[in-house]
Design goal:
Helix 3 links the parallel strand 3 and strand 4. The chain has about 325 residues and is of the alpha/beta class. About 25% of the residues have low confidence. Helix 6 packs parallel to helix 7. The two termini are about 30 Å apart. Strands 3, 4, 5, 8, 9, 10 and 11 form a 7-stranded mixed beta sheet that branches. It contains 8 helices and 11 strands. It is globular and about 55 Å long.
């Protein structure tokens, strides 16, 4: 069985040091999965005597330094799909209001307004080198790092949910910058309402497992428990089970994708760049942002970073805006 290993830059258990003690050990899972014991918590968070067979920590990334080129499309997309885009991201603010918002949040440039969502969604396929055995034959969800488009857009995605900064919510609301969240229950359960406020702003809440384990170390059933269990949490708390799933650390195997499909997952977006408070990291050898790239960051604050989430957003927006990219909503292209 082919193991595909990525490199999530979060700490080994997906949470900052000191947060492991708050990891949840239980949640409901559908069908036969409900009778299973709680899946192994991410390395370093499991109490003595728990955990799955296999490595306790994810191994270093095995992806080549020079990754395959990202997908491109035959041409740009245009048009709008009714009901597919939250109202707040449809209508552009007045120039004066946008200038004022940028100034309030310390941005030297106004973030660019994304184009309307494509009338015809681009075809999403698994990136070369990211397949598992039987990927296409089994109809497993595609794994990708970019969206095939020539529009000058990128997609911001934020993982786990450990930091719950109200200033970040105000900033993103004020600037009207779309983003996508991938959540793990063990770090969001102490404040589900924070992400409800986020959802009301038009942000899609997606699956990042219950406890952020290293999935390839788990059996198929335990992986199914982690993924389906998080589907149920999101549906129960936020009204709708997501279609998107991001494996912790970006690591997965054939069982991960089989389990995800069984839980109703349709897409497995990874990332092409990662942004921190003080630097960027790149998958591509030339360290350039391309049209359609998915950008990763995490819900983190001063406890883990040399700054806050608003500081990270300023770094992100300053670079993409200066390079002529708008930030679009990932779900509008799927």
């Amino acid at each position: 069985m082919r193991l595909v290993v990525q490199n999530d830059k979060s700490s080994p258990n997906g949470a900052p040091a000191g947060r492991c003690g708050r990891a949840a050990a239980g949640s409901r899972a559908r069908g036969a999965v409900a009778v299973l014991a709680v899946a192994a918590i991410a390395a370093g968070c499991a109490p003595a005597g728990t955990g799955a067979s296999g490595p306790a920590h994810p191994p270093p990334s095995r992806q080549p330094l020079k990754a395959p080129p990202p997908a491109t499309s035959a041409g740009p997309h245009a048009g709008n799909t009714p009901g597919a885009h939250p109202k707040k991201f449809k209508s552009a603010q007045s120039v004066a209001a946008r200038v004022a918002a940028a100034k309030r949040w310390g941005l030297p440039r106004i973030p660019l307004t994304p184009p309307p969502p494509p009338a015809t969604k681009p075809k999403i396929t698994t990136r070369e080198g990211f397949e598992v055995d039987g990927h296409e034959e089994l109809g497993l969800p595609p794994v990708f790092t970019t969206i095939p488009t020539k529009q000058r857009v990128v997609f911001l995605t934020i993982d786990d949910g450990a930091e719950k900064d109200p200033v970040f919510l105000r900033m993103m609301d004020d600037l009207q910058v779309p983003y996508t969240a991938f959540l793990s229950d063990y770090v969001i359960k102490d404040d589900y309402s924070y992400f409800k406020r986020m959802q009301r702003s038009g942000v899609a809440l997606n699956n990042h497992t219950l406890h952020h384990p290293y999935l390839p170390a788990l059996s198929y059933r335990r992986q199914q428990y982690e993924i389906c269990g998080m589907q149920e949490i999101i549906e129960e708390r936020y009204g709708k089970a997501p279609r998107l799933f991001r494996p912790p650390f970006g690591n997965y195997d054939k069982d991960s994708l089989r389990a995800a499909k069984s839980c109703g997952i349709e897409y497995v977006p990874l990332w092409n760049e990662e942004v921190f408070v003080d630097h960027w990291e790149y998958r591509e050898w030339d360290q350039k942002i391309r049209s359609g790239d998915i950008v990763l960051t995490h819900f983190r604050g001063r406890e883990d970073w040399k700054g806050t989430m608003p500081d990270m957003i300023r770094r992100f927006l300053n670079k993409v805006t200066a390079e002529g990219f708008a930030v679009a909503r990932l779900e509008d292209y799927l």
